[in-house]
Write a structure and sequence with these properties.
Layout: H1 26-33, H2 35-55, H3 70-73, E1 82-94, E2 102-112, E3 122-134, E4 141-145, E5 148-156, H4 161-164, E6 166-176, E7 188-199, E8 205-219, E9 228-241, E10 244-248, E11 253-256, E12 263-278, E13 281-296, E14 302-315
Antiparallel strand pairs: 1-2, 1-14, 2-3, 3-4, 3-5, 5-6, 6-7, 7-8, 8-9, 9-10, 9-11, 10-12, 11-12, 12-13, 13-14
C-alpha cells in the first residue's frame, strides 16, 4: 500500500522506498505531524525517565551526598542534582544573515542513584528545543521544533572523589529527527559516545567539560545529508559567596567531521545565583554573553548571543530516594 508523504515535512518521513514497507505507518505519521501530536510525543520522552526511576525503590548512597554549595554544582555535568531547566539563547547578531535567531530550550537532568540493575550513578538528560532560525540572508525567520537530544552518562566510581576531587563519566548521545520543518534539524537519526569530567580540587572553582559525538545512521528523507560531529562544552565556575557565582559554561565548540564542513568555537561569560526555596529544593537564575571566537566553513553562524536562564528547579536528593 502506498504511504502518502507530505512534501517538505521531516517528521518521521521515510524515503521513497517507504512504498515497499509492509507496515502502514501513515496514520501514525499524520498524528505526529500535528503540533499537539508532536508535543505529546516530546513530553512523553521527557517525562518517561523520571517515571521509570521513581518506580524503583532504593536508598540513597550516603557517600554521594555533596556538601559543596549549590552554586558550584548547578554547572557540573556530573553533580547529584535533578533539574528542570528553561533557557532562552537569543542572537541579536549572526554572520551571513540579518535575522535574529532565538531558541526556547527545555531540558531535564535526572540524577539516578545506584540500584539493583545499575550499580553506578546515572545521569539522563533529554533536551527539546523550539527554534526561530533565519530563512535566507534577509530578516525573515521560521519557527519550528528542533531535533531532540538525549544524553545518558554513567559516573565511574574511580578514583575516589572524596580524595581526588575528580569525577568522570562515560555514556551515549542520541539525536532524534523530531524537527517539524526543513529549516531546523538534520533529518537523520544520530548516535555516538559521550563523556564528561569535573574537578573541584581548588576551593570555589569548578573545572569541567562535556564531550559528545554523533554520526548519522538513518534518514527521514532521501535529500538528507550524512552528518558526523564532535562537540565540546568547556565549563568553568567560581563561587562569589551567598550562592552567587561567575561562570563560563554556555558555549559549545562544534567540529563537523566531514570534509569541508563547519567548525565554530564560541566563548561565553556570565553570572548567576541560586535561590533556596526549602530543604532540598532551589531555583537557579543566570545570564551570560556568548560570542564566536573562531569559525571555518561557517557562512551562517552566531556572532553574539545572550543566554537567559530564568527558571531552573533543583532537587538536591536526586530521583531515587
Amino acid at each position: 500500500m502506498e504511504i502518502p508523504v507530505e512534501t517538505g515535512s521531516r517528521g518521521l518521513r521515510f524515503a521513497s522506498r517507504a512504498n515497499q514497507n509492509p507496515f502502514n505507518f501513515g496514520q501514525a505519521r499524520t498524528q505526529f505531524r500535528t503540533a499537539s501530536g508532536r508535543l505529546l510525543v516530546l513530553a512523553a520522552l521527557l517525562i518517561a525517565p523520571a517515571s521509570i526511576s521513581y518506580a524503583q525503590q532504593a536508598a540513597p548512597n550516603a557517600s554521594q551526598a555533596d556538601d559543596e554549595p549549590l552554586a558550584e554544582q548547578v554547572t557540573d555535568p556530573l553533580s547529584h542534582l535533578t533539574q528542570i531547566q528553561i533557557k532562552d539563547p537569543y542572537t541579536p547578531a549572526e554572520y551571513g544573515t540579518n535575522a535574529q535567531p532565538d531558541t526556547i530550550q527545555l531540558r531535564a537532568i535526572f540524577a539516578i542513584h545506584p540500584f539493583s540493575f545499575i550499580l553506578v550513578e546515572q545521569f539522563i538528560r533529554p533536551t527539546i528545543k523550539i527554534v526561530t532560525v533565519p530563512d535566507g540572508k534577509g530578516a525573515s525567520t521560521a519557527t519550528a521544533f528542533d531535533d531532540m537530544q538525549l544524553l545518558d552518562l554513567f559516573a565511574i566510581p574511580w578514583p575516589n572523589y572524596k580524595e581526588s576531587h575528580f569525577r568522570w563519566g562515560i555514556g551515549s548521545y542520541l539525536v532524534f529527527p523530531t524537527a517539524s520543518s526543513h529549516h531546523a534539524g538534520n533529518g537523520s537519526w544520530q548516535a555516538g559516545p559521550a563523556g564528561a569530567f569535573s574537578y573541584r580540587g581548588i576551593p570555589g572553582l569548578n573545572i569541567a567539560g562535556l564531550l559528545q559525538q554523533a554520526t548519522s545512521f538513518a534518514y527521514t528523507s532521501s535529500k538528507a545529508t550524512p552528518a558526523s560531529s564532535l562537540t565540546f562544552q568547556p565549563i568553568l565556575s567560581y563561587q562569589l559567596g551567598h550562592e552567587w557565582y561567575l561562570k563560563s559554561s554556555d558555549a559549545t565548540w562544534t567540529f563537523n567531521l566531514r570534509h569541508k564542513t563547519s567548525t565554530t568555537i564560541p566563548l561565553s561569560a556570565g553570572f548567576g545565583k541560586v535561590w533556596a526555596l526549602s530543604k532540598g529544593y532551589a531555583i537557579d537564575t543566570s545570564a551570560s554573553g556568548e560570542w564566536t571566537a573562531y569559525r571555518q566553513f561557517a557562512n551562517q553562524t552566531e556572532q553574539f548571543t545572550i543566554n537567559f536562564q530564568g527558571w531552573s528547579a533543583i532537587s538536591e536528593t536526586g530521583i531515587l530516594k
